[in-house]
């Protein structure tokens, strides 16, 4: 058995920030999960639907691994990434750092992991790996998935090699701090402004505040769009609240990030952004509740109400990001 010592699992919500927290704490940088999410400019929105999809997808964050790239660039971290199509090389890429005493991050499809009770394909899942033996790999996942967990090396290989939406080719990564790290406090305002700029200037109507407005128009039709409404709508609502989002489709995490920032930076625009995202977080939970009720009851009126709230959310989040862009 090979185990990296002094690995700490915490009660975290989101997979990528969970893994980042493990890797960075091992390097001596200990930041709360909302701060990691915010410094990585993680908040976004996408309404994703196509004929090949069984049901639309509402996403509340940037693409998988973009948060990690953003955070590394902003803090001057050394991010070493490996990808391969070779199963042998894929294992060597994770075993070597662990043998050297360094935990490693993995992007994979959680469907194959032994400890996942809900078998849904998601190729953008991220975990930290800190050890292995002849049969199992030792991982850190979100609190919801058990924190420190293990899965068979066979299941891990399948999860890492899976192909499909948002997957990567056996992606693994390590993070190291430079001898003289940048001050993370100095990167708060650039991170907030970059996130706001991207949200407000999204290139297509499915993204950012325009994407939320589009969702407001499409969600009222979801009973007709769904193949199995009683299953599809509650599942969509569950993912919004419990699917590693930290609640409210990541808005609760961003609200908490902005709250932490108001204790460090005295700025009226920052306080306005925090107030608006606190409001938005409550409304996103209302939306998910209405979507679930529509699926359970078959009553489209719940979806009409959700559409009205989404229209308001588009305005609220646009106003919030316009304030934050002025920091």
TrEMBL record:
<dbReference type="InterPro" id="IPR032369">
    <property type="entry name" value="DUF4872"/>
</dbReference>
<dbReference type="InterPro" id="IPR026935">
    <property type="entry name" value="BtrH_N"/>
</dbReference>
<dbReference type="Pfam" id="PF16169">
    <property type="entry name" value="DUF4872"/>
</dbReference>
<dbReference type="Pfam" id="PF14399">
    <property type="entry name" value="BtrH_N"/>
</dbReference>
<protein>
    <submittedName>
        <fullName>Butirosin biosynthesis protein H, N-terminal</fullName>
    </submittedName>
</protein>
<feature type="domain" description="DUF4872">
    <location>
        <begin position="155"/>
        <end position="324"/>
    </location>
</feature>
<feature type="domain" description="Butirosin biosynthesis protein H N-terminal">
    <location>
        <begin position="14"/>
        <end position="142"/>
    </location>
</feature>
């Amino acid at each position: 058995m090979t185990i990296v010592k002094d690995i700490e699992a915490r009660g975290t919500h989101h997979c990528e920030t969970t893994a980042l927290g493990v890797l960075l704490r091992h390097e001596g940088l200990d930041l709360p999960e909302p701060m990691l999410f915010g410094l990585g400019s993680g908040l976004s929105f996408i309404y994703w639907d196509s004929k090949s999809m069984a049901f639309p997808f509402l996403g509340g964050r940037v693409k998988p691994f973009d948060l990690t790239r953003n955070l590394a660039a902003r803090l001057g971290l050394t991010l070493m990434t490996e990808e391969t199509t070779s199963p042998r090389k894929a294992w060597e890429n994770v075993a070597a750092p662990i043998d050297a005493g360094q935990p490693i991050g993995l992007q994979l499809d959680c469907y194959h992991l032994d400890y996942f009770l809900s078998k849904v394909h998601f190729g953008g899942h991220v975990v930290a790996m800190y050890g292995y033996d002849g049969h199992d790999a030792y991982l850190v996942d979100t609190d919801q998935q058990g924190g420190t967990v293990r899965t068979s090396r066979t299941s891990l290989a399948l999860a890492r090699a899976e192909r499909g939406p948002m997957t990567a080719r056996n992606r693994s990564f390590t993070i190291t701090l430079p001898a003289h790290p940048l001050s993370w406090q100095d990167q708060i305002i650039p991170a907030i402004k970059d996130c706001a700029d991207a949200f407000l200037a999204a290139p297509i109507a499915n993204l950012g505040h325009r994407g939320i407005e589009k969702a407001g128009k499409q969600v009222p039709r979801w009973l007709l769009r769904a193949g199995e409404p009683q299953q599809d709508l509650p599942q969509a609502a569950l993912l919004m609240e419990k699917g590693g989002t930290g609640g409210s489709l990541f808005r609760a995490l961003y609200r908490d990030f902005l709250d932490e920032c108001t204790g460090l930076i005295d700025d009226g625009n920052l306080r306005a952004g925090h107030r608006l995202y606190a409001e938005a977080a409550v409304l996103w939970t209302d939306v998910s509740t209405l979507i679930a009720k529509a699926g359970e009851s078959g009553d489209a009126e719940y979806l009409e109400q959700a559409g009205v709230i989404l229209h308001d959310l588009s305005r609220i989040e646009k106003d919030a990001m316009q304030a934050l862009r002025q920091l």
